[in-house]
Each structure stands twice: as structure tokens, then as C-alpha cells.
Design brief:
mainly alpha; Serine Threonine Protein Phosphatase 5, Tetratricopeptide repeat
Length: 303
């Protein structure tokens, strides 16, 4: 229970468990990004509305039984066979070309849509099942299963989700080099994804590749991001990079922007050791006071 004499900022720091190691400010950015990236969107109401939940401390949903893949694979093989037949020009007894429709019916847009829908369902349920496997301690088994499953997935947006999940798993294993490799593959599938870019930057930062991480984060057009929490996390990580590299005014400006966008998030992580180089600056203390005042005013309004 919160003590009455604690300020909002102090209370946040009190109940926020410190993160250890050089990646203390980075895992949060990774989780924010992967949270938005792991949701699977469906176009019909009879499909699951959510993909896998990977936030730490959150119980994963109980996965539905993974359906047999034989039907889906058979459908995909049929389409491949029809495509191959379309590329040939069969002749009848007189030597004239026969219509392709005489050999096999045309594939309708509905057939293709159904196939893609089946593939999305398979991917969503496979992600759920292997996340559960990972959380129960069978980590390598889960990662290898996702790696093999990639062979059956053709859509780039679905392959991005699988690579992202594998990257998150490697990140949780503290294997930041392997995590970066997975996120690089995910980014090849979707070069314009902000969440994938943030994930890759987080892995780079944790692996000591600060310049590479900074280049990625600085290249994101923040004005196009609708979620202020994600924008604040990006600004916060840029502040950490600037602090470590000794670019103090730049680091303080990024920290100020993060505090403006999400004072609660920023205030809860002001103790990040990556900010030690700017901690004694007058502006740092001013930002901390402003955060405390903002949270106090917000609490008063709520009351």
C-alpha cells in the first residue's frame, strides 16, 4: 500500500523493480515494441482477436489446440500445382492449344483469400503454442520449432512476426547478438515497421553497438507514431545513448522530450545507470522536479 507521504514520482520508483545490467532501459523499449508487433490482425469476427502476449509478468493466454497442418499444406500444394499448369501450353490431338480451364478450374480470389486466412490462423496459434513452451522452460525447443515453421510461411508480414518472436526469445536469454540477427531478418520482411526498428535498436544497444542503435532510432519519424508511450521510450533510449557517448546537451533534450510525452514512464526510469553522466546536470534535476510536479497535479485532478 502506498504511503501517504510519498510523492507520485517516489511512489513509482518505490514500486518499480530496478532492472539490472547495461540493458536496464532497453528491455522496456523492446517490450513496448514487441507488444504492438505480436498482435495478429484478422478481418473476420470468428477469428481470435489477439496474438500472443509477451509482456513480462503477464500470464500468457491459454493457447487453442494447434490444428493439423495437413489441410493447409494440401491447399497450398494444390495452388502451386495449378500455377505450374498455367505456365504450360498443352496441345490437343490436332496440335492446337487447349484452354487451361479444360485442365483445371481457375483459382478464385476467394480461394486465395481463404488460403492466406488459414496461414494467418496457423501462425497465430503456432506463436501462442511456442511462447507457452518457452515460458515453461523449453526455450531452445520453442525457438527451433519457430525456425522450422518459417519454411511453411510465405507471407512477409507473417514471417516478420515469427522472426520478431524469435528475437524476443533470444533477447530474454540475454543473447543480444542472436536477437539482433532475428530482428534484422524481421526488418527485411517489413523495412518500414517502427516496432521492428525499435526492437533491433534495443538489441544493438544491449550488445554495445550504440552508434548503430542511434542511427536506427534517429531515422524514425516520430510524428507518424500515434502511441506516446512508444515515442517516449524512443526518446528515453536516445537520451541513454547520448549520455553514454558524452553528448550531454543532446541527451538532456531527449530526456526532456520523453518526460513531456510520458512523465510516469520517464520518472520511473530516471535511476537508469546509463543516465549517470547527466545525472548531476542542473537540467536533469529540473526535469525530475517537473515530472514530480506533473504527477502530483495529475493525482490531484483524479481525486
Amino acid at each position: 500500500m502506498m504511503k501517504p507521504n510519498l510523492s507520485p514520482l517516489s511512489a513509482l520508483r518505490r514500486r518499480t523493480r530496478p532492472l539490472a545490467g547495461p540493458a536496464c532501459g532497453l528491455a522496456l523499449l523492446l517490450i513496448l515494441a514487441s507488444w504492438s508487433n505480436a498482435n495478429i490482425n484478422y478481418s473476420t469476427s470468428d477469428l481470435p482477436k489477439r496474438g500472443i502476449v509477451i509482456l513480462p509478468g503477464t500470464n500468457a493466454p491459454i493457447p487453442l489446440p494447434t490444428p493439423s497442418l495437413s489441410d493447409s499444406r494440401r491447399r497450398l500444394r494444390q495452388i502451386d500445382l495449378l500455377d505450374q499448369r498455367k505456365n504450360t501450353t498443352p496441345l490437343d490431338a490436332s496440335g492446337s492449344s487447349r484452354a487451361i480451364a479444360d485442365i483445371a478450374p481457375e483459382i478464385s480470389a476467394t480461394d486465395i483469400s481463404t488460403t492466406l486466412r488459414m496461414q494467418r490462423i496457423r501462425v497465430a496459434e503456432t506463436l501462442k503454442a511456442n511462447n507457452t513452451l518457452f515460458r515453461t522452460g523449453r526455450q531452445e525447443e520453442a525457438i527451433q520449432a519457430l525456425q522450422h515453421f518459417l519454411d511453411d510461411v510465405t507471407e512477409s508480414d507473417l514471417r516478420e512476426k515469427i522472426w520478431t518472436m524469435m528475437g524476443v526469445m533470444r533477447f530474454k536469454q540475454l543473447d543480444y547478438t542472436a536477437a539482433a540477427t532475428c530482428f534484422e531478418e524481421a526488418r527485411l520482411c517489413n523495412p518500414h515497421s517502427v516496432s521492428v526498428t525499435c526492437n533491433l535498436a534495443a538489441a544493438y544497444m544491449s550488445d554495445g553497438k550504440l552508434e548503430e542503435a542511434e542511427a536506427l532510432l534517429s531515422g524514425i519519424r516520430l510524428s507518424l507514431i500515434e502511441d506516446p508511450k512508444l515515442t517516449a521510450a524512443i526518446q528515453f533510449n536516445l537520451a541513454c545513448i547520448g549520455s553514454i557517448l558524452g553528448r550531454l546537451p543532446e541527451a538532456l533534450e531527449h530526456l526532456s522530450q520523453a518526460a513531456r510525452l510520458n512523465p510516469a514512464f520517464t520518472g520511473a526510469h530516471l535511476g537508469d545507470t546509463q543516465l549517470d553522466n547527466i545525472r548531476n546536470a542542473h537540467r536533469f534535476k529540473s526535469i525530475a522536479r517537473q515530472i514530480d510536479l506533473t504527477l502530483e497535479n495529475n493525482r490531484t485532478l483524479e481525486e
